[in-house]
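can u pls check wat happens w/ iron/sulfur cluster
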Amino acid sequence: MNEFCPLPWININVDIDGQLLPCCKWTPGDIKLPNLKEGRIDELWNGEAFKTIRQKFLDGEKLKECRECWNMEDAGMTSYRQSVRETRWVENGTYSGVLASPPKMYDFMFSNLCNMKCRICTGEFSSLILNENIKLGVTHNKPEHKYWLNSKILETENEPILMSWLTDCKTIQMTGGEPTISSENIKLLDTIIEMGYAKNITFSMNTNAKIVSHKFLDKLEKFNKVRISLSIDDIGKRFEYQRHPSKWTTILGNIDKYIDTSFETIIWCTVSLFNVYYIQELLDWAPCKVKLNTLHLPEHYNIKNIPNFTKELLEDKFEGDERLTGIVNFMNQPSDIESSTLIFDALQEIHKLDLHREQSFSTIFPEWYEELNFGV
Ligand code: SF4
């Protein structure tokens, strides 16, 4: 059963909107996933949507909602379902029914509170971008946006349920927003430590490294193992442009601080239209292990959707560099969307934000800008 994935039996992902998913790589499709606004977490975990997903995996179906995993594997890269097996915890056992015991793995994205507005991110995942979008008139200040900052578990009917489930928890992952500044994350860590569960749990998080919160890191010392993924996609001025507002010198100092901890620290680099041309510079510079990941959405920044002549240019540039074989394979996969205007959409969005943020893509990325603009 090559397409089988055990995550819907053992992992629960709570996203910023209170949506429950089997993992963070799930692409919305025909299966309507449940939301914490609709019921209690334990009822939803064994509700119709999760039972349907489990049955489909048991039937050997290759779910289209899992296309991020299939695309990565087809490109010869490590998919999320594979990396979870390597780095987290997966029960060796049989998965035969559609009902599941309480999850062993948790992936929490409790709020979109963030201290950066990265170019590849959206308002759903960054409060700064959301505010900027409201100012730009791209989106409106809707009442549901407040929910993105609200507590999803603590001080709700779901808190006692989660606490009873955590006795058997193996891993917790926190992303965001920036996880180190979320008050719900901090409170949850305190509760887990007080209840004595931390020593059995592997904790992981993705941080943008804009700040190093010693208060947060001290709490992590109590966990069995800790894995920190630093979201670093580029270096120098290009980093500052892509992950704004930030100062590269500060980020460099913070990377060193994370590496100096006793935690496993890696660089989690997301390859997109912005950094693909310069990716070898990041790999040559990196002071620790780098995990290359590819951006899937938004489509106009996905490297599958850059013009063909720039793909050829990149293939020549990367020829013989085995570190980038997977990236080239991914880039050359057929696009998930039929549209010939994506590069225009990308350049237009870049220009609009450049004006607003007083930045300049053409100045910071001159060679790449010239290639992208050629013939457009
Ligand atoms: S997207 Fe990947 S990790 Fe998530 S459920 Fe599907 S196969 Fe598993």
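Residues 342-357 form the longest helix (16 residues).
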